Amino acid sequence: MRTISNLLFGERKSNNFASIGLLILRLIAGFGLIIHGLPKLAAPMSFAGDAFPGILQLLAVISEFGGGIALILGIFVPLASLGASITMFVGIIFMHIPFKDPIYRITVKYSFEGDGDPFFGFPLWLAKADGHSAAGSGSAELALLYFIIALCLFFVGGGHYSLDHYLRFRKQK
User: What cellular component GO annotations does this protein have (predicted)?
Assistant: First the structure.
């Protein structure tokens, strides 16, 4: 049990210079997650219809909207990051892949008609030019980006410029 507690709430080491980078990353990703989760607050247990149980949809809203706030403040960064990364992973697996969204959708001709065209010979799962998916999102790029950022923050923590660091430092005094 000590290991899980340390993994979710334990101290991560970083220097001041790296902490500035982590602060910028937390602010941008946190704001993006808030904006990503904001529309879901209108129907927190039914925004995805019957695709998922209501409680899982609520957890997704909490991890996006609440997790975004936590990242901005730098509080419970590993826990907030874990929730966000799980939510984005589920979104990629259950929302983007079934709709055959590529990882990247490149705007070439500014045409949003159809499923999209091959792009420079890349496999269709990787990149498509123009078009859109049946779900309307078009690509898994943003979900993948949030997933990777959240996963990195889970492992490295929020840095020196976070409430996690301040509270830990204050507790040690």
Answer: plasma membrane
